[in-house]
Amino acid sequence: MAHKIHIEFPGRILMVGCGSIGQGVLPLILRHIGIAKERITIVAADDRGRAAADSLGVKYVKATLVSENFERVLEPFLGRGDFLLNVSVDVSSVALIRYCWKRGAMYLDTCIEPWPGGYTDPSIPHSRRTNYALREGALALRQEANDKTPTTVITHGANPGLVSHLIKQALVNLAGDLGVQSKTPVNQADWGALAQQLGVKTIHIAERDTQNSVKPKRVDEFVNTWSVDGFVSEGMQPAELGWGTHERNFPQDGRRHDFGTGAAIFLMQPGAATKVRTWTPKAEYIHGFLITHSEAISTADFYTVKKNGEVVYRPTCHYSYHPCDSAVVSMHEFVGKNYHLQSKQRILMDEILDGIDELGVLLAGHERNAYWFGSQLSIGEARKLAPFNNATSLQVTVACLSGMVSAMESPNRGLLEPEDLDFKRNLEICKPYLGPLVGQYTDWTPLHDRERLFPEDLDRSDPWQFKNVRVVG
Asked: Do 325 and 189 share a structural domain?
C-alpha cells in the first residue's frame, strides 16, 4: 500500500529514546517523511526498541544520556538542518533544545522533561515540580531566539499536542451549531474571544482507555498501554489545572504560583491521588485521575481574554484520565506502596484482547451544556493501521508525526507550543490514524445523580464549578 509523503526531508533525524512511543512513531516517519532509513539514528538508554529498529533497518545506539555526556554522545548524529525527536524520560528538554539550537537542528518532544529528580526531589519546592514551572522554563528560551532559530515544537504528542487541535475544531463545530457567525480565528486573541463568546467555562481532556489483556496484571507489576515511567512520573507531580474566571470556590489545598502567567494552580497532593468527574460518549460518566499535563496550563493561558491588562475570561482546564483497568489497579498498588514503583513493569501490546482508547475534549458550560469531540480508536483498527502500536500509542505517535511535518514545513519559527501550529494541517495528517472522529453533545453535568447515598457540599449555582467536578474522599 502506497502512503502519502507529507514532506521530503534532506537532513538527518535523531530519535532520543525508544520506548513504546519511539517504536510506534518510527514506521510512521518512514512512511510519511521522505527520508532514507540510513539517515535515521536512535539513541536509547536500553534495548527495548532495538528489535523494532532492526526490523526497519535503522541504526540503534545504546547510551544513557546525562548532563555530563549528552552533547558528546549526540554530536556525531546531529548538525545544521537535522531534526531531533525527543521521546525519552529523565533527559532535560531545555538542555536538548539549547543543544539543538547550537547545532542548528529542529526539535520536537511530547512533554517537557527535567533531569532525574526534577519531578520528585523533596528539596525542590512543590511549585517548581509542576508542569507549570517546566513550561515557564521552556518558554523563557524564547528570549534566546531570533528569526533564524530552528523550529522547536514542545509538548506535541496526543495530549499534550493533538488535543489542542481537537479543541480548536470543537470550538469551530460548536460555533456552527450555535449559529455564531464567525470566521475561523487566526490568532490567540481571536480564539480567546470565540471561546468567551460561546460561553465555554471548562475544558476537560476526557479519556477512557478500555483496552484489556489476555494476561492479567500480577502482584507487584505495573501494567500500562504506554510508558510506565512517564505515567508514574506525572502521577507523582502535584495535580494541576488551568484556573478559570468562573470559579468561585478556591480549593483548600490549592496553591497559586508567584511567577509566570498565573493561568494555573496546583493542589498539595499528587495527581495519582486526585480524581475528577468527566464524561465521554461511550463510557459516559466516569471518574478519572487528575494527572498534570501541559495542555491544562497552555489551554487556559491561550484562551485567556484580557481587558486593560486584567483577565476577564479564562476557562478552567484539566486532564481527566481513566486508563485501562490494569493501569488503574497498578496505580492503586503504586500509591499504596507510598509511590515506590513495582519491581516489574509491562506495556500492553500484542497481548491486548480488545478495547478502545476514547480520547477527546469536553467543552462545557455553554448553551448546549457540554460537547465532546475526539478519537475512538480501537485496538483492532490500530493494528491494521500501523505496526508496533496499540490504540493509545498510535494517537500519540501520529501527533508526533504531524508536529514534525509542521516544523519541517516552517523550519525557522523558534519555540512553539501546539496552540501555535495550524490545527487544520495537523488534523489532516492525524485523521487517517485516529479511527472514528466523533462529536457528541450531552446533558450530563457533574451534579448528575449526586447525593444518592450521602449529602455533599455542592455549589448548585453552577454545575461546572471545579468543586463539583472533584471527587473528594
From this structure: yes
